[in-house]
Automatic annotation (TrEMBL), chain A:
Entry-linked InterPro entries: CysJ, CysJ-like_FAD-binding, FAD-bd_FR_type, Flavdoxin-like, Flavodoxin/NO_synth, Flavoprot_Pyr_Nucl_cyt_Rdtase, Flavoprotein-like_sf, FNR_nucleotide-bd
Phylogenetic classification of the source organism: Bacteria, Pseudomonadati, Bacteroidota, Cytophagia, Cytophagales
Flavoprotein is among the record's keywords: yes
Domain Flavodoxin-like, chain residue ranges per copy: 70-208
Protein name (database record): Assimilatory sulfite reductase (NADPH) flavoprotein subunit
Top EC class of this enzyme: oxidoreductase
Listed transmembrane segments: none
Automatic annotation (TrEMBL), chain B:
Annotated ranges, domain Nitrite/sulphite reductase 4Fe-4S: 169-327
Family: Belongs to the nitrite and sulfite reductase 4Fe-4S domain family.
Catalytic reaction list: hydrogen sulfide + 3 NADP(+) + 3 H2O = sulfite + 3 NADPH + 4 H(+)
Protein's recorded name: Sulfite reductase [NADPH] hemoprotein beta-component
Cofactor dependence: [4Fe-4S] cluster; siroheme
Pathway connected to this protein: Sulfur metabolism; hydrogen sulfide biosynthesis; hydrogen sulfide from sulfite (NADPH route): step 1/1
Binding site for siroheme: C485
Amino acids binding [4Fe-4S] cluster: C436, C442, C481, C485
Amino acid sequence: MSLLSQNQALPLGLDDTTLQRLTTGLSDQQLIWLSGYFYGRTSAGRSEVQQAVQGATQAQPAAPAAAAKLTILYGSQTGNSKKVAQQTAEKAKQRGVQVTVQDVNDYATRALKTEQQLLLVVSTQGEGEPPVAAEELHQFLLSNRAPQLPDLRYSVLALGDKSYVQFCQTGREFDERLAELGAQRLLERVECDVDYQEAAQTWADRVLEVIAAEANTGHAGGSGSQATAAETLTAPAPAQYSHHNPFEATVLEKIQLNGRGSSKETYHIELSLADSGLHYEPGDALSVVPRNGEALVAEVLQTARLDGTAPIQLSGVEFELGTALTQKLELSVLTRDVLERYAATAPQHKQLAEIVTDIPQLQRYVYGRDVADLLREFPAELSAEQLAAVLRPLPARAYSIASSLLVHPDEVHLTVGAVRYAAHGRTKHGVCSSHLADRLDIDHTARVFVERNEYFKLPQDAATDIIMVGAGTGVAPFRAFVEERVELGAEGRNWLFFGNPNFTTDFLYQTEWLQHLKRGTLRHLDVAFSRDQAEKIYVQHRLLEKSRDVYGWLENGAHFYVCGDKARLGSAIQEALKQVVQREAGCSAEDAADYLRALKKQRRYLEDVY
Amino acid sequence: MAETIKLSEVEHVKDGSNYLRGTIDDSLQNRVTGALNPDDTHLIKFHGSYQQTDRDLESERKRQKLEPLYSFMIRVRVPGGVASADQWQRMDALSDAYANGTLKLTTRQTFQLHGVLKRDLQQTIAGFNQVLMDSIAGCGDVNRNVMCSSNPRESELHRQVYEASVAISNHLTPRTTAYWDLWLNGESTYSSAINEGEQEDFEPIYGKTYLPRKFKIALAVPPTNDADVFANDIGLVAIEQDGQLLGFNVAIGGGMGMTFGMPETYPRLADVIGFVPAANVVDVCEKVLTIQRDWGNRENRKFSRLKYTIDRVGLDTFVAELHQRLGYELAPAKPYRFETSGDAFGWSGGPDGKAHVTLFIEGGRVYDKPGYLLKTALREIAGFHTGEFRLTGNQNLTIANVNPKHRQQLQAILETHGVWNRTEKQTALRLNSLACVALNTCSLAFAEAERYLPQLLDRLDAVIRANDLTDDGILIRMTGCPNGCVRPYLAEIGLVGKAIGRYNLYLGANHAGERLNKLYREMLDEDGILRELTPLLEAYAAEREPAERFGDFVVRRGIVAATTHGQNFHA
């Protein structure tokens, strides 16, 4: 018999005869197992093999489940968790594991009881909150309604950002709670910093090893290879450019958007993507790989009493300390992990040891301090190698893209707020914003790569209305949204709420919005300038003023987008929206909260807050 | 008339405005722009305000994707230029709260605030109202602020002339309630304008389309023509007998504005057409104004002023119509003599024992800078002064009717704030200088004026001093465009901006505001101005006749021909 359907082309060098010879005497089950085996052995030419295997499994009726089925859930905000989950599912499939990969947002919580093997890839937002997609499962699991799960074996991959104190908090909570409910870990939780790729791959390989080993020892019965992914398993094309291999984008234009006398300093930066092949959609982010400023590097070297030319090693590569401090290591913010390592390296500082173990103290300490402050306040005789080992890798900073590729082919525009403040005796600069604001001029190059934001996207249906709430630089993606919708001739209406301190100086992209308003490509524009009057007025107040229309739009299916500072905007807008619903629908606070929850669930309430 | 008249755009806006309301209310509610709806920019003028932009920032903000920095100039009417100490303090406070921190004293004896943002307009105007001032008819196609000689020395006569100016002002103030509705929530605590008991707006004098163009009236008491009466649509020359006001010689058809490249536009001085007793002066003003309302050109605003109406129909025809509408004829004009249109500075005493001090306010700008705390000094003085603050027609300020026991304190404040020296130690040339606002806020300006004239005067002062002309008052006036806000065509040295850094030089007006000047050189830069004026000033110093003024000297020497009428200004 032929394993391939008639119209399936054979790869070069294989013919029916050879196939018959190779497979004679093998059962269906053995054949299927082998197909996975060979697939897994192949690392090059993966996609062709994948096609072949898919062809094979399609041609074959599903084998009775012998091994435990594997479910991979991801709770993603920007799409990183999704990417890892899909890659892991891919690997599992190659190993012949029956795998389902699913967005936790779409996951029925009651199904948890029936799961046998569960991998959870989840990120943490802001100060330790789950991504919107995972909110419901998170709430369910942590509540007393959560069932006991003695039959479940699981592992958690937690994504996070070490610059936040509550690093990987959500992953941690899921992991610990599942254990409390009686589930058993396939593998210890792995926590990943912003540079997650390598650690995530290692976790995936190891957890799949465990699953394979258990299958062989008959820990869980059954085997199978049919991929029953709830969504397509085609992995996104691997990004050509990344943190380690950024694209050098030439600065085409750089404009200070704030008028004279402003309290803000915001830059509109246009970068060339010519010849990069880079593609993005409105809602995506552009990550910029920054460099630390000379002054800060000098300050650190001086405080540490180290020579910038001292050789050190980072991941086996040799650098001069000064170069590493400029390009590779984070200096401008202090994070918990750095403090812990430093405290361990300098145990004589009892006070520091105390700070590290006390979260509230730690939070107070890291606020407004940088590495130079730490070195000055807790001096220690560190070698260049020791210093490098204490510090964390310099992460890229992601900025919401402010342009549409349709309107600006081969370009990407950013709206960057320069972060500057005085703290602990020195003026501090946000590493990336000051890199862009102070050290990058027209014709210089910025090192960039695109980060997909899976969910913060325009509605699929161009006829859907959108309400956009942006404060400060949070208006950036909405410039892209409106540009894109105009270019596509989308018939859905666009409504922008914008806020910033002062009207005359801080109305970012004012003339563009006024043009859109005039042409009708922006139906409404409501602005709040907090410092133009005695009482502070913010975008949420404008939302409430327009509650009837806002609710009308939502009832009409509008998507609602929020972008800006998380602390100032996130909960305030949700509260305002609940009040809007309560007032206009004449319902209770609980019903309004449900309304908002439903919007989130339907992915019609979308946040890009930072 | 049989042929169809194609009215100008502004006429349509006025007609459809429901007595100057337009959509101003919507404009004020609109938060996404600092500007008004386009039609409302015409109407806001009738409320005393111009929408302007900061032209210094124009290209910078365009690049920043910000709209122009819109702000508003608000002109507060002060009939006869007389303000109380309370009113002065209020203007001072409002300039800090909502404007750019300075006050401009204008050549029509008004206060101007600059840089008021749209969102602060209502509070600012409400602030005037609380001290019984208003800005209605500060600008627009209506009778503007009525000027009056501010010389307080002839106390009783001046009082009577001032009262006439207030009576004229009140009579010709628009009656629309739009001003109260828009700026004062419909509540008028003070009103010179409202129709008592009327249910609906109507304008008994103006009608709903008001005048074809602005209309100006000034009153002067000879021998001082500090109100430059002949530059006005109606100029009234006070005639006295034994210190009592008899009435006025009436002059009509004056106006300064012209347009470069349009010789059919020209400045023109008012023609004296007769004498009216004081009791009828309001009536005469109303009838002249209503003839202009009916006969003035409403198709092309460049020819809408009374001066063109008169030259079109002929002075005799106009006067005949006036006599008909009055129902009586004006008496023949009575003799009078003007000596100067400038101000007399320093202390002077009135016959009643009160003292007055006139201060030189360069460019009319009241502000503070290190070593020169004019604004602070005047604020402190307003705290105790029991007399008035009189704005002169030459952008200067008289602190009038100073209580004798305050004089020493007042003088001390002027000295310690660096104000006194500014009046005392100037050349008479600078003391007789005027400059309009021009850049950066006036949309009409081609060149600098107020910001630049002081520097030019630094260089001219050197020439003046070298030629021993320090005490010779020469009228020098600079504008940023040919529209003539500081009456440059009545200057002995007139500098009218034509491009950035370039000025046309006009010479030969007489010192009392009774003869226009004439173009002498075009498009001069600073060196060119110095190069042209230096030899003339040297010659004037060396060759003038006793008491001969510079304007008369250049005419006598044939450096320019005398302009005898507006219609030969360009000749």
